[in-house]
C-alpha cells in the first residue's frame, strides 16, 4: 500500500478530512494537520508536510487550502517538490504522467467532494511515463 501524506490549512480542512477517510482503504494516509478549523498559516503547514516528502517519509502528498493556490505556491518553493494544482481528472493524470508531480494540490473551497475523490484517485493511480519527461523534470531542479 502506498504511504501518502495529507495536509491542509483551515480552508482545506473539511475536504482534507473527507479525503483522509475516503482514501483510507486504498492508501496509507498520514495526516500532517491541520487538526481543526482554527485559522493557521498555509506556508507553515505545507512546508512541514513537504519536508516529509523530501525526507521520503511519505511517497507523495495531497495538500489543500481554500483555493489550492497558496498551498501550491508554498509547496513549489521547496526544491525537489513538484506540486500540481488540479481541478479535474485530466490534469491530475497528466501531472503524474508528464510532470511526476509528488504533491497534488486541491482547493477545498473549489472542488465538490465527489470530484475531489476522483481527482485524487486518478493522481494516486497514475505513474510517471519517464522517457523524454525525465530530462525535463530533471531540469526543474538544476536550472535556477
Ligand atoms: C484562507 O482563508 C485562504 O486564504 C487559504 O486557504 C488559501 O486559499 C490561500 O491561498
UniProtKB/TrEMBL annotation:
<feature type="binding site">
    <location>
        <begin position="66"/>
        <end position="70"/>
    </location>
    <ligand>
        <name>D-ribulose 5-phosphate</name>
    </ligand>
</feature>
<dbReference type="GO" id="GO:0004751">
    <property type="term" value="F:ribose-5-phosphate isomerase activity"/>
</dbReference>
<feature type="active site" description="Proton acceptor">
    <location>
        <position position="65"/>
    </location>
</feature>
<dbReference type="InterPro" id="IPR003500">
    <property type="entry name" value="RpiB_LacA_LacB"/>
</dbReference>
<dbReference type="Pfam" id="PF02502">
    <property type="entry name" value="LacAB_rpiB"/>
</dbReference>
<keyword id="KW-0413">Isomerase</keyword>
<feature type="binding site">
    <location>
        <position position="99"/>
    </location>
    <ligand>
        <name>D-ribulose 5-phosphate</name>
    </ligand>
</feature>
<dbReference type="InterPro" id="IPR004785">
    <property type="entry name" value="RpiB"/>
</dbReference>
<feature type="binding site">
    <location>
        <begin position="9"/>
        <end position="10"/>
    </location>
    <ligand>
        <name>D-ribulose 5-phosphate</name>
    </ligand>
</feature>
<dbReference type="InterPro" id="IPR036569">
    <property type="entry name" value="RpiB_LacA_LacB_sf"/>
</dbReference>
<dbReference type="GO" id="GO:0005975">
    <property type="term" value="P:carbohydrate metabolic process"/>
</dbReference>
<feature type="active site" description="Proton donor">
    <location>
        <position position="98"/>
    </location>
</feature>
<comment type="similarity">
    <text>Belongs to the LacAB/RpiB family.</text>
</comment>
<dbReference type="InterPro" id="IPR051812">
    <property type="entry name" value="SPI_LacAB/RpiB"/>
</dbReference>
<feature type="binding site">
    <location>
        <position position="136"/>
    </location>
    <ligand>
        <name>D-ribulose 5-phosphate</name>
    </ligand>
</feature>
<feature type="binding site">
    <location>
        <position position="109"/>
    </location>
    <ligand>
        <name>D-ribulose 5-phosphate</name>
    </ligand>
</feature>
<protein>
    <submittedName>
        <fullName>Ribose 5-phosphate isomerase B</fullName>
        <ecNumber>5.3.1.6</ecNumber>
    </submittedName>
</protein>
<feature type="binding site">
    <location>
        <position position="132"/>
    </location>
    <ligand>
        <name>D-ribulose 5-phosphate</name>
    </ligand>
</feature>
Amino acid at each position: 500500500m502506498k504511504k501518502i501524506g495529507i495536509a491542509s490549512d483551515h480552508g482545506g480542512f473539511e475536504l482534507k478530512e473527507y479525503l483522509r477517510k475516503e482514501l483510507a482503504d486504498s492508501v496509507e494516509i498520514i495526516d500532517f494537520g491541520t487538526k481543526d478549523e482554527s485559522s493557521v498559516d498555509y506556508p507553515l503547514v505545507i512546508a512541514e508536510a513537504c519536508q516529509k516528502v523530501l525526507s521520503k517519509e511519505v511517497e507523495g502528498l495531497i495538500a489543500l487550502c481554500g483555493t489550492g493556490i497558496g498551498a501550491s505556491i508554498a509547496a513549489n518553493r521547496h526544491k525537489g517538490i513538484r506540486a500540481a494544482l488540479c481541478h479535474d481528472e485530466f490534469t491530475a493524470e497528466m501531472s503524474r504522467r508528464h510532470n511526476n508531480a509528488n504533491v497534488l494540490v486541491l482547493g477545498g473551497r473549489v472542488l465538490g467532494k465527489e470530484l475531489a475523490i476522483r481527482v485524487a484517485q486518478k493522481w494516486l493511480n497514475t505513474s510517471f511515463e519517464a522517457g523524454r519527461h525525465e530530462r525535463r523534470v530533471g531540469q526543474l531542479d538544476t536550472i535556477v
